[in-house]
Structures are given as C-alpha cells and as structure tokens.
Please model this.
Amino acid sequence: MTAVLESSGLSKRYGRRQALTDCTLSIPSGHVTGLVGPNGAGKTTLLNLAVGLLQPTSGKIEVLGGQPASSSEQLARVGFVAQDTPTYGGLSVADHLKLGAHMNPGWDNELAERRITQLGLDPAQKAGKMSGGQRAQLALTLAVAKRPELLILDEPIASLDPLARREFLQVLMEATAEQELSVVMSSHLVSDLERACDYLIVLVASRVRLAGEVDQLLATHWQLTGPRCDPAALPDDWQVISASHTDRQSTLLVRTSGPVADPAWAADHIGLEDLVLAYMSQPAPQPARTATPSMEAQR
Amino acid sequence: MIWLTWRQFRAQTIVTAAFLAVLAVALLVTGLNLAHLYNASGLATCHGSSCGTFASNFISEVKGGLSEKVFYAGIYIVYAAPAIIGMFWGAPLIAREIEAGTFRLAWNQSVSRSRWVVVKLGLIGLAAMVTAELLALLTSWWASPVYQAASAARSDSLSIARIAPPLFGAQGVAPIGYAAFAFTLGVTAGLLIRRTIPAMAVTLAGFALVQIAWPNWVRPHLMSPVRESAPFSIGRLDEVMIGNGNQMIVGDTASKPGAWILTNQAVKPDGQPFTGPPTHACLSQGMQACNASIARLHLRQVIAYQPASRFWSFQLYETAIFLVLAVALAAFCAWWIRHRRLT
Amino acid sequence: MMWLTWRQFRPQAIAAAAVLAVLAAVLLVSGLSLAHLYTTTGIPACHAHHDCESLASGFLMHARSGSYDRLHGIAAAIVLLAPAVIGMFWGAPLITREIETGTFRLAWNQSVSRYRWIGVKLGLIGLASMAAAAVASLMVTWWAAPINRAVVLAGSASPTTVNRFTPAAFAASGIVPVGYAAFAFALGVTAGVLVRRTVPAMAVTLAAFAAVQLAWPNWIRPHLIAPVHAVLALGKVSLGGFGDGPGNSLFLAVGSKGDGWILSSHAANAAGQVISRVPGGCSTQTGGPGAFLACLARNGVRAAVTYQPGSRYWTFQWYETAIFLVLAAVLATFCYWRVSRRALA
Model:
C-alpha cells in the first residue's frame, strides 16, 4: 500500500520557537489515523504542513504522492477541516454548499444535502449564528462532500457534544469503508480516538514519540510488575518507556517485539489511553532515541 | 477598568499623538513663513485706508501660493478628524468586543456593565473632543493672519467669511461638538450593527450626511437671518444675464464684509423677484445704456444674511446641539448594553 | 471562485449601487435643469451674435450661485472620496477578514489553487472599483459639461478662476478617478496583506492614499509635462489680483488663462523678468484700481504666467490614469506574489 502522508526530516520554526522537529513519518493508506499530543505539541503545525497552509523550514512532506496544495488537482484529493472550523459568518448553510459545489469538481451534492438534513441544520441559517458544534458539522460536511481521498481533521470533535461525537466518528468510519477514504485526525482526547482509529501517532514537544498501527502498538507494549531491579540489568530488546519503583517492587512499561519470557515479571497488556499517557509524560528523549519511532513507522 | 480602556486604546493614542506632532511641526514652519508675509505686506503697521489695499494684496498673495494649500488642507483636516474618530475610535469600540467575544471576558470581571460602558465612552469620548479641539486651535492659529487681513480688508470680494461654510465648522469650539457626536454615532452604529466594518461604513455615511445637510439646511435657521432691502445700485452691479426665454437676471454685490449671505435677490417695486423681461437697451445697446436702463427699473436689492458678529453665538449653539446629540446617543448605548443581550 | 467572490462582495456591491443610483438621480434632475439654463441663456447661438463672452460669464455667474454650486461641490467631493472609501472598505478587508476569521483555511482547501483565489479576488473587485469610480466620474463630468464649455467661451471674462483643470475638479472628473480607484483598492489590499488586521489596515490605507492625493497635485502633476511660460500684456489677461504694498512693492497675480491651469504668475517686464517695485510712480491711492492698472501698462508692466494650457487636459488625464494604473498593477502583483507564495497564518 502506498503512503497517504510521507515526511522526512520535516521541521517548522516560527522565529525562535521550534514547532516541529525532524519529523519522519509514513502513514499508510486505508487507515483512520489519530494524532495525539498535549497542547502546543505541534499537531496543528504538522497538519497545516500536510495541507500546504504552512511551508516547512526544512525537510520534505508529500501527501498522496504530491506536494501539498501544489495544484487544484492535489487540492481536490485532500479534504481539511481546520482547528476552529472556520466558516463564512455572513453566508448561510445553503451558501456554503453552493461554495463547495462551485469550488470543487468532484462535489457530491446529494451527500452534502443528506448530511445537512440528517444533522437538522436549517439551510437558510447564517453560519455566524450557529453553535460551535453546528459550525464544525458544516465544515466537516464541506470537507467530506468534495469526495477527497484523504481527510485531514484538526481537533474536529472538540466542540461536539458526546452524542454528536459518537455519530461523527461513526460516519467517519463508514466513509472510510465505503469511499476508500483515509483519515488523519488530531485530538487530545485518547478515548475518542480509541473508538475510531487504527493507527496512532504521538507527538510531544515538537517531536514524534510513537507511530504505528494500534493493534501492533498494543501487542508490543507490556505493563510489567516484578521485584525491584536495576534498569541496566534489563534485556537489551526491552525499551523502557516508564518506570516506577517502590522499596521492593518495580513497575515498568516496556516495549518489546518478543514475548516476555522471564517468569519474575507479571506481564499485562496495557490500554491505549495509558500507553499514550506514558509516552506523553516521558521526559524529552536523547537524540539517539528519536530514530526509533521513525524506524517503527517505516516498517 | 480605566487601565483596560487605556491599554486597548494605547495604539490609537500613539498614532494620534504622532500625527498631531507632525502636523504641529508642519504648521509651525509654514506659519512662520505666513507671518513673515504678513509683516512684509505692511498690514501690521498700517493706518486708515491703506490697510484695505494691503490686506487685499496679502490675501491675493496667499491665494496664489503654498499658503492657500496649507490653509485649505488645515480646514480639510479639521473636518475629516471627527469622521475618522467616529470610524476608527467609535465604531470598533463595542463591535470589536462583540466580534471577538471579549465582552464576555470583560463583563465577568468585577466591574459592572454600566461602569464598563461609561468608562469606555467617557475616556475615549474625552480624547476625541480634545483631539478635535487641538486640531482646530492649531489650524486657527496658523490661519489667524489671513482672518485678520480679511477683517481689515472690509471687502467681501475676498470671500473669507468665518461665519460662512466651510470656514465656520473648522474653527472655535464647534469641532468639539462634531467629534463627540461622530464618536458616539460610531459607538451606536457598532452596537446596533455588531460588526466593525459595516459599522464604520455607516458611521462615515451618517456623519457625512449630517455634515452636508447641517450647513445647508439647518444652521441658517438657528437664528433668524437679518433681512435688508436697499435701492438697487448700478455701482455695485455684478451680474447681468439675458436669457433667450425673455429672461433677464441682474444682481448686486452684497456689501456685508464677513457676513454669511444666505439670499441676494433683485426685486421689482411690487416685491416680486425680477426675472425679466430684458430692457431694450440691454438687448441692443452698449453697457452704459444697459446699466442706465436697469437703473430706471427702480429695483431693490433684498438680502438675508447672518452678520459676522453672530460668530460666537452660532459656535455655542452648534456645539451645544451636537453635544446634546452625543449625550443622547451615549445614553442610548448605555441603556442598550444594560437591558439587551449583545449576542 | 467567481461565485464565492461575488457572494462575499454582494453587500458592498449593493451599497455602492444604491449610492450611485441616488447620485445619478440627483445629478440627472439638476443636470437637465443646468443644460436648460445653458440653452435658454442663448449660449448655443452666441457665435452668431458675437456675445459669447458676456453670455457665458453670465451663465457661469448664475451657475456659481445657489444650488448648482452646492451640488457640484458635493458631487465632486463624492468622486474625490470614492477611491479612498473603496480602498478602505473593499481593499483593506479583502484579505484581512479571511485572516481574522480563519476562513482562508476553508477557502484554500477547496479544489481551487490560491493563485486563482487571490487572482479572482483582485481582478473582480479591482474591476468593480474601477467601474464604480468611472460611473461616478462620468455622471459628474456630464453634469459639469455646460460649465466647462462656458468657461472656454467666457475666456478672460470668466468670473471664476476654477475650471476642470484646477486640482480639485481635475481629480473629480474625466478618467483619472478610474486610476485612483484601482490604485486605492490595490493599496488597501497591500496594507491588509502587510498589516494583517482590518482596522489598522484601513487606517493605513486612508493615511497613505490621503498623502498621495495631497502630494500629487502639488508636487508631481505640474511637472508631468513641462509647463508653458507666457508674458502677456495686462489688457489681454484675466487678473486675479493686483496692488501696491509698503515700500512701493508691486503685487500682481493672474486669475485664469482660458481653461488652463495656472501654476504661478508675477509682474514682469517685456523680457519676462520679475518686477517687484511699482514703476513710474503709479499708486492705487491716487487714482483707484483702474487708473493704477493703466499706469502699470503704460510703464511696460506685463503679467508673466506659468501654466498648463487647457488643450493638455486630456493628455494629463491619460498620463495620470496610466501612472496610477501601473502603480495599482505593481501593488496587485506584489499582493498576488505574497499571498500565493507565503503562509498567511
């Protein structure tokens, strides 16, 4: 399968602030990819680079095999909903659908109108008078109805109520199945991503910490409990993500491709949320370690 | 609240202060040149009848050169200032807070809404009035030699009458009233329209309409004009026009130096305006015969005017009226914010 | 993209159309009445009676008083201000509104490249700006046509020193308003692209355009073509003022030179050199203005005048329009390049 998003050494700097550092990624197609990280980690920067709203300071990024936003054909293949779900406040819902129809050759008007009806939006209502959630749904409708191959969503569910959230993710998963649509969406709510995503990227302090298919990530991470031990004495193929020690006992989160054979350790699988939290609270890695996630991603 | 108002208004204050400073320097430089011209004209030391000639010369000299451009530029600036204040200080004052939603932040500090709006309106309204008056004082100081010469000339062919538009609105205390009115007009437009740019456009259009309508249709009637009727004088004849529809129009100069002439008509002995028919002499003979034939019509010249001595009465009236309008608009804004929702 | 541009521009277009319609109605009524006055004055047949000068000056005298003059002033002010208003309200917010509300992120992720996005916006609304200015100017030019013809016919008898070539009228008639509107619009967009916030960008646009409009007629327009210098006999020229001052100083100014634009004038001898002292004991104190003038003429005083002849009116109109259109194109190209090549956020 080809990659929907491929980057190497991608960096973005705003003045003296490094927003994204040396990001090397390859997201395969056919996935719903979750991009998680704390506030200010660089999620929006990465997504804006992917749709060409930003130019990288260094490095390369290719989306669906092309330069982001390099041509109207490229634009037609990628749908994007920006973080604050911008809409034209003075234009009505119907105007926004017309906008989409006029500006996108592959516009699916039937899909757009069906979604608007399902959502119970009044076509004559001005976008400026709608709630944040309704605006998000409108922006998403525009992005979906242009029939993109890749849909990029920046915090799309932040302003939705829990019910709308579940429906939204449902629609998203259906769309991926029916339209052979790939999705990249950012969030800091892991619980929401857990339901929909089958690929995960963890971004912390402008660097990619973890990237891979969710199943595989869950299969290779173990929560180990055992007698207090010296970290240096652990097997070489164990990568310790987090460790906590009491006087007699150590609790480790370990990444390893093989099984945990040592009977001294009680091995448990870990939930996605705990896994992500462990990576997010990990101290800044040494430069040598940053290669690991990218190797993982390219596998 | 005062701190917040000042902090939000700081950029505008700096820009305005910089503009005033640049203008003051420019006016000082050209003003010294004008003062030099004034002294050289002999007006400062003249006595009696020679003053009239010196004054006419001085004003003719001013009219040709750079000084005339500065004179009118000064008047434009004083007229434009209230409109700009209304657009850039007034309209965004509340509209920006509504658009950005920051009024929610401001209203949930421990400051009442009334205080919020009163401090905003009061402080920036005061700044608006001070700015407008500073501009008026600066440009009036610059133009004072011209006005002195105009009054010394005792002739109205110079058409410099301080009580007549456009000079009236750029002097005295009237700009204070305009600025207060334009500012509150802008705030009201922003509050009702709730979007900055349309509110700015409405403020500009509204204030321009008032500034066009006021001197043409309202100000002349603030005090009832003086009406005078005098025998038509061939010596002061300045218009003789013969139309082919059996029409003839004649006019005398209105010899009221410094006054604002509202109407000036030649009327027949029965009191009706004279519009013809043309006299035989004017149709077929020379100018002298024509003039003599006009004299034989026994016309009268009827003028209505506001004398120059009413300058300060008009200034005070007009300032008071615009200040009252401004207070009414401000009170409306305060009431609206107190009793209506902003979203 | 055309559709979105038009849809976003609709309120402004309606407002502009309404203003133009009101202006057109008022100017039409008044203009017909002014044209009627021109005809009834007998000017069209004046060449047969050899009384063009007096009829035309009488007509001008009448047109200068009352509601005609007032309306002319208001209409000319509207045409003068229109480019500034266009620059502020159409130009400056064009990009800044999209930045402030983030909607450029929405627009740029439709299947329309941002080259096309900025190109269509600049092109369509730029054209609309020029069209609005052209219509307003055309109406005022049509309204003032009888006055302009009368100024030419009245010659040195003209009661007014103002004509279509003098700065305020020049900028408010003919085709230059089209150039100003294009320039002001592009200036507004440029200010928006650089300042990125609407209200400050509007203020910058207003200040910059006012500065250009102030500097241009005073320091640049007079030199677009080298002016004509002429030394004329006092009887052949319409004087704007003359007199003597303290120490025998002489003052003399030319009021009008047909429908030309007077740049400067002074008293001179036959060779055109400046005379600053009253010659031959002439004085306004002894015989009144008429005798003083005759005395000056006897003593060889002439009027030297530097001016742009009325025949150059259209040349100046074309030059100036072309210059401002080129400036507008340069600014628009800058905006096009800047928006399409650089990130907005």
Notes: Strands of chain C lie at 228-233, 238-244, 250-256, 261-268, 302-308.
